[in-house]
Design goal:
Blueprint (H helix, E strand, L loop, with lengths): L16 H34 L2 E12 L2 E10 L5 E8 L5 E9 L5 E9 L6 E9 L1
Antiparallel strand pairs: 1-2, 2-5, 3-4, 3-6
Length: 133
């Protein structure tokens, strides 16, 4: 006795359910990929073009148990005012000072030293970020 072939003729009854599911997954993956790339592009564009104020902390100096001086170099569009947030921490990592400093000089590049009053002796200072005002 011979075995009877139980397979359906190829291509006669349309796509199988697995092939249709595979196609839907490929379309969904492509759409999500395009959205992800658009989001990354938007963030990059905003970071490069949308940011009107940027700064760099040149150095900091712990003057006493209750004061830290921070030297900032701020780059911005001329005539734009900006606000930069500074923070200082103690040796155990606790925040001992936080200050929003206004940079409203009309020049495009500003070098200034700012003082932070601390609640305990600081061991570090950092620039958290700047925004246009």
């Amino acid at each position: 006795m011979s075995a009877v072939d139980q397979q359906l003729p190829e291509g006669r009854y349309g796509r199988s359910a697995d092939e249709a599911a595979d196609r839907k997954l490929k379309v969904a993956g492509a759409v999500l990929g395009v959205l992800f790339l658009a989001l990354i592009g938007w963030f990059g564009w905003y970071h490069v073009v949308g940011s009107k104020v940027s700064a760099e902390m040149i150095k900091f100096d712990v003057v006493s148990d209750s004061e830290v001086q921070v030297h900032l170099e701020v780059r911005k569009d001329e005539g734009i005012a900006g606000v930069c947030t500074l923070r200082s921490r103690s040796e155990d990592g606790a925040e001992v000072a936080r200050k929003d400093v206004v940079v409203d000089d009309p020049a495009g590049r500003v070098d200034r030293v700012f003082s932070l009053r601390t609640t305990a002796r600081a061991t570090s200072a950092e620039l958290l970020g700047c925004t246009a005002r």
